[in-house]
Design brief:
The chain is of the alpha+beta class. It is built from three helices and four strands.
Length: 125
């Protein structure tokens, strides 16, 4: 069964095109490492809740939009191998893929407020 990595990010609304450009460059790393699909979604109808919501989860400010992203992998083993490779790249910048170089492809958002998790599907239709 497949494996899913999910992300929620607060991105300055003014940086929408910068985010798209960043994703178009960086997301190729996931597919090159075995991901079968990468989806980036710009918040269109993301309500604020009374108890919790996406905005609170990433401490979004009024001038930021919510981005929901996910990466589909054929299985957890492929994902784990890819994450190890990506971690190795971060620890060894001299061998890093240039698409992940924060100088050449800077994140147009505050990465400290990104939330991330890996998920095992329990229902697929």
């Amino acid at each position: 069964m497949s494996y899913i990595d999910g992300f929620v990010i607060a991105v300055p609304t003014a940086n929408k095109q910068k985010f798209i450009d960043h994703a178009n460059t960086a997301d190729g790393v996931f597919t090159d490492l075995g991901a079968t699909r990468v989806i980036e979604c710009w918040g269109d109808d993301v309500p604020r809740g009374k108890v919790t919501d996406f905005h609170r989860a990433v401490q979004a400010r009024d001038d930021e939009s919510i981005v929901l992203s996910w990466v589909e992998w054929p299985d957890k083993a492929t994902r784990d191998a890819a994450m190890k490779t990506m971690t190795d790249w971060m620890e060894n910048p001299e061998t890093a893929d240039p698409r992940m170089d924060p100088v050449k492809n800077p994140m147009p958002f505050d990465g400290t407020r990104l939330i991330f998790g890996g998920f095992s599907p329990i229902v697929e239709l």
